[in-house]
Amino acid sequence: QITLKESGPTLVKPTQTLTLTCTFSGFSLSTSGVGVGWIRQPPGKALEWLALIYWDDDKRYSPSLKSRLTITKDTSKNQVVLTMTNMDPVDTATYYCAHRRYYDSSGYPFDPWGQGTLVTVSS
Amino acid sequence: QSALTQPASVSGSPGQSITISCTGTSSDVGGYNYVSWYQQHPGKAPKLMIYDVSNRPSGVSNRFSGSKSGNTASLTISGLQAEDEADYYCSSYTSSSTPYVFGTGTKVTVL
Q1: What is the 3-state secondary structure (H, E, C) of A42-102?
Q2: Do B99 and B90 form a contact (C-beta atoms < 8 A)?
Q3: How wide is the angle at C-alpha A104 spanned by C-alphas B93 and A98, nearest 5°?
């Protein structure tokens, strides 16, 4: 059974850097084809894909946020870390990490997702 | 990379069928058979309902089906039930450099 859980601060100040950790179980990020992504959702708004890291340490970022995002992995700890610099109140959102389904899919959807963590940006 | 376009809301009575559209471009929905659909109940994480246009993960009811024509994908819910009331999001592969784009979301209301 694959599970993921996000952790990190619930409140950050404007201009600060956000660091979120996704701790997972049920798969290994050293297995070919595996990936973990980050997606966020502002209150009452739509989902927005942020970043993805692959088993081979290849990384992809949303073009609109690429300059502010860094995604890394620690295979030994079964963790993926997302950092976002220069936080702004518009970045207030629930941040999700999710497993990239690869074993029976060509489109690699996200399945399953973590429970999400709400991050509020306010002074 | 613009969000895929979905109707803001769709409603139906119990037992009816409804269809949610997801419109993109030839660079995403129209270019690949890699459309996914997610269901999200209030305060919960999204759940994968359909992947690769029309495939259902194990455990998802066969009342949910997906299709695609040109740049528009569709999710159909047949035999609508109260538990289907939720937000639904489509997603599509776009390119190897930016592999994911989500839709604007649709709120489904069971009357």
Answers
A1: CCCCCCEEEEEEECCCCEEECCCCHHHEEEEEEHHHCEEEEEECCCCHHHCEEEEEEEECC
A2: no
A3: 60
Q: In this structure, what token pair is assigned to residue A74?
A: 């620690």
Cβ partners under 8 Å of residue B82, min gap 6: B14, B110
Query: Of A48, A108, A115, which has the smallest distance from its Cβ to B45's Cβ?
Result: A115
Residue type, B60: V
Using the beta-carbon criterion (under 8 Å), do B51 and A105 form an inter-chain contact? yes
Query: Tens of pLDDT along B17-46?
Result: 999 999 999 999 999 999 999 999 999 999
- Three-state DSSP at B93 gives coil
What pLDDT, in 10s, does the model give residues A31-89?
999 999 999 999 999 999 999 999 999 999 999 999 999 999 999 999 999 999 999 99
Look at B98 and A63 and tell me if their CB atoms are within 8 Å: yes
Confidence of residue B97 (pLDDT cuts 50, 70, 90): confident
The pLDDT value given to residue A19: 98
State both tokens at B74. Answer: 């569709």
Among all residues of chain B, which has the CA nearest to that of A48? B102
Q: Which of A47, A48, A107 sits opposite B34 (nearest CB)?
A: A107
